[in-house]
Amino acid sequence: MRISLPRLELRKTVSITLILLATLLILAETSRGILFDPRRVYGSALSSLLLFLALRLRGSVRRTFLLPVIPSFIFPPILLLVLLLPKDHERPREVARESGEAFDLLRTSYGSNLVICRSVRLMGSVAISLASELSRHRRVVLVDWSGEAHLRLGKVDHRIAEPSDICLGYQGDLGASYHMTLSELLSYLTGADPSYILGLLRGDVPPVLRDPRMGDSELITSLARSNGLRIEEALPKLSGVLIIDASKLNIKGKNALSLMTLLQCCTYEERDFLVIAPLLSPLTDERIHPRIRDELRWMISSLSKAGCFILSTKESSSFSDEFDNVIECDSCTKHVYKLDSFLLCPWRGNRGRRGV
Q1: Cα 192 to Cα 171: distance, rounded to the nearest angstrom
Q2: Nearest by Cα to 67 from 83, 50, 54, 56
């Protein structure tokens, strides 16, 4: 359904091809012996470029890529070390045990994180604390369910936006598949036919035609048609928080806004900001439709490229396999991180444990 999937397969194929060409070139340069040969500079430089392009297609490349380049002019196989060096997109999962070993919240923020809380109110409070802590180093998008974020952020650079101020219909790299995915998710939340919602998003449905199953959910779809600023335009320039104030919406509207914001962040292939959002359904729905489950799995995987914190209740643990890290809040005696007055704890669930 998403046109981005074939594109990912093509990028993977091209990346593998470039790695093979670079390896052949490295082997050819190795045949010149171990003594320095000026002609080797050209072959090593070309193989370096091919490897860089191959790794760049798979994700961002650290500056450590440059370390083996100069020695490779003498002994080309050294260049293959770049394939073993950790890249930014290959962030090892951090397992924090109850012994309280070091836990790097900033590093963890670059993956997909599920924070399990006891209540909806706790979800909103912890979300604000996470935004305040991480905004010192990153730009953060926060969906604020309580409306208290601007009071608690204090001197942190922040901007406040109403849901209608933000463009939640930007298709980005997803193209036409964005509206198809969004219509299916909104259909699940509202009960209306997905083709009807898709028509609303595209402007193909006349105002006189109305699906009675929408009920009071028309506000939700109207948010997706907003012509406001795109998220990256509304964010602070260097670091800080963009607060999307959901306090005036009912619980269904809050949940829909979080889901749309998370999906909107998936449209950016090169995203340099973090998204933090409370979310209940569909994470907490035990009888979720397989198609919606697949959409949610894809979304969580896409968000892990630049990081997210999704805060939910214990029922969401059935999706624990899809997240890089799973954390509990205020549920232990030996915590791994103290966040304001909250304790972040290693998850002790039995299903698909991935650690913190």
Answers
A1: 22
A2: 83
Q: Quickly list DSSP for 181-225.
A: HHHHHHHHHH-S-HHHHHHHHHT-S-TT---GGGTT-HHHHHHHT
**CA–CA separation, 356 and 348 (whole Å):** 10
Burial class (CB in 10 A: 0-12, 13-18, 19+), 33: exposed
Three-class SS state of 327 = strand
CB 112 within 8 A of CB 323: yes
Distance separating the N- and C-terminal Cα atoms of the chain: 32
Residue 95 has pLDDT above 50, yes or no: no
CA distance 126 to 290: 30
Instruction: Give the CA-trace dihedral at 164, 166, 172, 178, to 10 degrees.
Output: -30
- At residue 9 the predicted structure's pLDDT band, cuts being 50, 70 and 90, is low
Q: Which of residues 65 and 153 earns the better pLDDT score?
A: 153
pTM confidence score:
0.70
- Nearest CA among 107, 81, 79 for reference residue 95: 107
Write down the H helix ranges in the chain: 4-30, 40-58, 105-108, 120-134, 149-152, 177-190, 194-202, 218-224, 231-234, 251-265, 290-303
Higher per-residue confidence, 333 vs 302? 302
Helices (H), 72-171: 105-108, 120-134, 149-152
Alpha carbons 94 and 112: distance in angstroms, whole number? 12
132-155: average pLDDT: 94
pLDDT in tens, 210-256: 666 665 567 777 888 778 899 999 999 889 999 999 999 999 999 99
Round to whole Å and give the CA distance between 305 and 8.
13
pLDDT for 182-203, tens place per residue? 999 999 988 888 888 888 888 7
User: Which residues are bridge partners to 166 per DSSP?
Assistant: 229
Sign of the C-alpha dihedral, residues 244, 237, 298, 295? positive
Place of tokens 């509990």: 328
